[in-house]
Amino acid sequence: MSSGAKNIRLGAGTEPLDAIDERLLAALVDDARISNKQLAELVGIAPSTALMRTRALSERGIIQGFEAKLSLSAIGRSVQALIAVRLRAHDREQIDRFTSRVPRLPAVLSTFHTSGSVDYLLHIAVATTEDLRDWVLDNLATDPVVGHTETTLVFDHIQGNHGPLPD
């Protein structure tokens, strides 16, 4: 590890990140499509080292994947909503039934299993408010596992930090 490197805290049993790992991650968070040659130049290491370290970060589960971020309005899904879902009962069978079906529906962008007064928070995107109403009716209101839903329209989604959080 280089001197002066601040280590990002990781889960128990996980090897800490050194300054090179942190610079690699920062560059990839900024532009996941950067070429390995450009990444190596940016970080100040050999391309073979950049490739080896990036692969190691993936194998360690620190890099979980690379994805394309779509413009929801450009693909006809400009209506976003957060839907709070409370299940009727909290037994394993109902939880498994819900989590095996709902998060995989095409309109669902994210599913959060939460504590407190709601069990799940869904972030969905559809074309129109009518589609939103129909989606809730077809996929939640008629589901015997679901006890209650509350839908909130999203006016704007402001992205947060996608990479390592500062200490």
* Strands side by side in the biggest sheet: 2-3-1-4
What is the CATH architecture annotation of the largest domain? Answer: 2-Layer Sandwich
Characterize the largest beta sheet: strand count, sense, and whether it forms a barrel. 4 strands, antiparallel
Count the domains: 2
Which percent range describes the beta-strand content? Answer: 15-25%
Q: Let me know the number of strands.
A: 4
SSE pattern: HHHEHEEHE
Look at the structure and give the mean pLDDT.
90
Describe the global form. elongated
CATH superfamily of the largest domain: Lrp/AsnC effector binding domain/regulation of amino acid metabolism (RAM) domain
Q: Using the CA coordinates, give the radius of gyration.
A: 21 Å
What CATH first level of the largest domain would be assigned?
Alpha Beta
Count of discrete alpha- or pi-helical segments spanning 4 or more residues:
5
- Tell me the helix content: 25-40%
| CATH fold-level topology of the largest domain | Alpha-Beta Plaits
For the terminal residues, how far apart are their CA atoms?
Answer: 18 Å
